[in-house]
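Give me structure tokens for this 260-residue protein.
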Amino acid sequence: MARSPRAEDALRELAALDLTHRVEIEAPAGLDDGAAAAAFARGRQFDCVAVAAPVFSSAAIGRREPGASLSAEDPGLLAQARAETATAVRTAAAFRAPLVTVSAGTLVGSDAPGGARRREQAVERLCRELSAVIRAEPGLRLALRVEAAASALLDAEAAGWILEELPARSVGLALDVAAARIREERGDEPCERWDQVAAGRLSCLYLSDCVGLEGGMPLGTGSVNPAWIARLRGRGLPAILKVSGGALRLILRESIGRLL
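Here you go.
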């Protein structure tokens, strides 16, 4: 079957970014071991840069309720995040992926009375959980994902606390350039602040663009500064093309599928 013109455009974009065989996958829900992932990987020549976990950590973004994450106060949500993270670790081993990316989760009501202390407690829980994962998997590398949601626990200040607390060999930062720009547009920290906080501990880049507060756009179509991206990419960090939205996502999936 011939590729559509839009799929050809997506292929050219991938080739221009030298990201053709660099992908991130989500750890499949319900995977009991790495066997299914390993079977899927056989015969496919690509570099799985990272495995995302917890898969459903962003489910509550935009709603006034928390989602599953390793910083969750609710025992059920925390248990769900632990299980998803364990699945991601097994999947990463099956794909020989060097990174597992992790959401710090959300914190609803941080501006309410007592919110500052709740935020500190959430960061402490996250550090304890990440430490436990590292102890169980000594060679594992984790990367905290920078997320755009206003309720995201991980701002630049919290990222600094966590990176100071946890070992550099095991924990870094996965910088989503569009998420950083959205945060800047909203009046949070400037984009460059993330690089300063990471202090050499950037693990990978998510490359996409944004228009206003809407992310998931192809690079070059929004307000992310190309010079900033060029400086970041000049360090040789693994880069993952991140595009969301129905049509474009399907096009990229089709394009990457034909390349594998």
